[in-house]
Design brief:
Helices cover about 40% and strands about 35% of the residues. The chain is of the alpha+beta class. Strands 2-3-1-4 form a 4-stranded antiparallel beta sheet. It starts with a strand and ends with a helix.
Length: about 100
């Protein structure tokens, strides 16, 4: 499974209904499972981003479909990055010439 980190910001719509954010997160976590994605962590943050979401997906297509589904609901804008753990980056670095 590949890991992805999504930095998210509330839209105006998301801010108007911010009191429902924990409920929405639970619903999104359940929906992720139906898409073959596991939302392993969610953090509400202060600063430039409102949420940091960590997901694991079998491939880029599943992760992308999931993030597009989340964003299309209109409550957040997402910026998603592929993340590598220590073992993965060690393997990658072993291929560097």
């Amino acid at each position: 499974m590949a890991t992805y980190i999504s930095l998210s910001r509330f839209t105006d719509q998301g801010m108007r209904t911010v009191k429902d954010t924990a409920k929405r997160a639970a619903a999104v976590q359940q929906a992720a499972k139906t898409m073959g994605v596991e939302m392993t962590q969610i953090y509400w943050t202060l600063g430039h981003y409102d949420l940091v979401i960590v997901v694991e997906a079998a491939d880029e297509q599943a992760a992308t479909a999931f993030m597009l589904t989340v964003a299309s609901a209109g409550n957040v804008r997402v910026q998603t990055m592929r993340a590598f753990n220590r073992d993965e980056i060690t393997e990658i670095l072993g291929k560097v010439r």
